[in-house]
Amino acid sequence: MDVYRAAPADTAAAATARPLPWARWALLGAAGGAAAGSLVAGAPSGLASYFARQVLTPVRERPQDLAILAVVGSGPGQEIILPATAGTTAPGVYSVYFDAGAGHARVGEITFHSPREGTVQRKVERVYAGDLSRAVRGYWGGSAYPDPAALGLASEEVRIAVEGGEAPAWLVPAAGEARTWAIMVHGRGATRTEGLRAVHTARGLGLASLLISYRNDGEAPHAPDRRYGLGMTEWRDVEAAIGYALAQGAEDVVLFGWSMGGAVSLQAADQSVYRDRIRALVLDAPVVNWMDVLAYQAKLNRIPETVGNFSQWLISNRAGRLLTGLAAPVDLKLMDWVSRSGHLAVPTLILHSERDDFVPYGPSAELAERNPGLVTFERFSTPGHTREWNAEPEHWERVVSGWLARVLGISRA
């Protein structure tokens, strides 16, 4: 097992979809004590602090909100019957996790869809863990594979020194010598399995792939405050990963980022001491403006606009730390890449669905419009968040491979 120690250094839903009674929010606001009461008061402030903490606090256990209605057959012919939703009826390859995430099955082709009964039947391509035939509830996921071996690829488990300890990562070597490495940065509430969707594409271009973990994701060490920095702190773990790649002989890197991993990658490209070694960014459904995402989520959860704005204030100001639990405020304006479009200095490809139900695609498209010399935007129509590859893998891989080959100057047969 390889361990690299770096030199000391100088993004699931944001809130419940069903609003609780205002009285309960008032109690949550009062729970901060006299000091909190001197800062804010009443039910709206309680709701704002609760919403802010929901955004910033890692969730360790996913709700099993998907009923598994039936499992038909066994072995290669096994199929699963699920409630018909926008996600479960989308084409492509996905995962059903069950037994509190300990069980994992990859599902594919739709074999029967009954709008009248509200059900969908899909093929089970592989059960990686657990007894699917006994499962009754689970949750739907876009990380279709559990590890590089499931893709038929050899890998090495390495550990990268980060603040507070070591972060595990998968290193998937290139077929030959690789001067450029792809570093895969997953999103909020996800793990390094999210980046497996891009490994074959990177390998086809001659790139080695490093699929990293970072603070608060359940594999890497916690941040001291056990709160997400929404990209403002996590980029240092990406910097450590770049340092590892360079120490192993890489000359430069490409950062792949999904959802909040996009925000993390953008901060690394802006602030890291290795920013001149970052050749390109490939961002899937990225958060390029947290203020827009937070406002969208507040509206989706029927939170009044003034309360949503106050939650942003709590996150971004030192006076809000008592209620958010943050060690330091998060500079939301610094992570508004629409307003800061001229500061982006790295060739960037953004792939984003117009039907994204968590991170609206509008800011991604606007960033490309404001900085057309460096930013390329590819629109998808896939339902769900970060599901572009799942529903349209050939489209996704063709766009990424073609764009990266041009940016990196790779000639393809």
From TrEMBL:
Keywords for the protein's UniProt record, in alphabetical order: Hydrolase
SUPFAM superfamilies: alpha/beta-Hydrolases
Sequence ranges assigned to domain AB hydrolase-1 in this UniProt record: 183-346
InterPro entries registered for this protein in UniProt: AB_hydrolase_1, AB_hydrolase_fold
A UniProt-annotated Pfam family: Abhydrolase_6
UniProt superkingdom: Bacteria
GO terms of molecular function: hydrolase activity
Gene3D superfamilies from the UniProt entry: alpha/beta hydrolase
Residues in coiled coil: none
Presence of the UniProt keyword Hydrolase in the record: yes
PANTHER family: ALPHA/BETA HYDROLASE DOMAIN-CONTAINING PROTEIN (PTHR12277), XAA-PRO DIPEPTIDYL-PEPTIDASE-RELATED (PTHR12277:SF79)
Record protein name field: Alpha/beta hydrolase
Organism listed in the record: Arthrobacter deserti
